[in-house]
């Protein structure tokens, strides 16, 4: 399969929300409290797209995955209970989801590699992210891709594991 990674457009929003809604349900079925508080929601997706921060992984004409990416803009990361590997510019991403029809194909990992390319294109060598303590899939991907556990951050009153990867060429 040939996938492409591009900035999301407003016309993509319904399909993105459908993917996110199903992912929220999967987290609930897994017994997780992640994404069970009304976040994310369609307004969050619309905001990502309007700000040019929403990105999709596309399989032909089908959206196979979604994430939000931005540079140096995660206030919670300034309050890390731990220590980041680097200081200065970083790329951060959130809401990494894969469509139900594309699960089990390694696409979340593929999206993270595209995010690393995004960082390199912007001459940034640090990628930071976080996830829920019980998100075994994401924790495994961080391990596979060489992320380092740096401590905890808090989002909406909930602690999350924070990771960083320093990129090398």
UniProtKB/TrEMBL annotation:
Gene3D superfamilies (UniProt xref): 3.40.630.30
Residue intervals of the N-acetyltransferase domain: 3-169
Pfam family, one: Acetyltransf_1
InterPro entries found in the cross-reference section: Acyl_CoA_acyltransferase, Bact_Acetyltransf, GNAT_dom
Record keywords, A-Z: Acyltransferase, Transferase
Annotated protein name in UniProt: GNAT family N-acetyltransferase
Source organism (scientific name): Sphingobacterium arenae
């Amino acid at each position: 399969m040939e996938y492409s990674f591009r900035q999301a457009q407003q016309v993509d929003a319904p399909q993105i929300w459908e993917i996110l809604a199903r992912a929220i349900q999967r987290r609930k079925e897994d017994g997780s409290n992640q994404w069970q508080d009304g976040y994310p929601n369609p307004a969050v997706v619309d905001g990502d797209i309007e700000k040019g921060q929403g990105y999709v992984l596309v399989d032909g004409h089908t959206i196979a995955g979604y994430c939000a990416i931005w540079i140096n803009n995660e206030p919670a990361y300034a309050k890390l209970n731990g220590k980041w590997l680097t200081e200065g510019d970083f790329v951060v991403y959130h809401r990494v989801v894969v469509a139900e029809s594309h699960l089990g194909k390694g696409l979340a990992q593929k999206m993270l590699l595209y995010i690393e390319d995004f960082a390199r294109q912007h001459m940034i060598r640090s990628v930071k992210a976080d996830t829920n303590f019980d998100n075994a899939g994401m924790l495994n991907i961080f391990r596979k891709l060489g992320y380092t556990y740096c401590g905890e951050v808090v989002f909406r009153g909930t602690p999350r594991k924070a990771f960083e990867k320093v990129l090398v060429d």
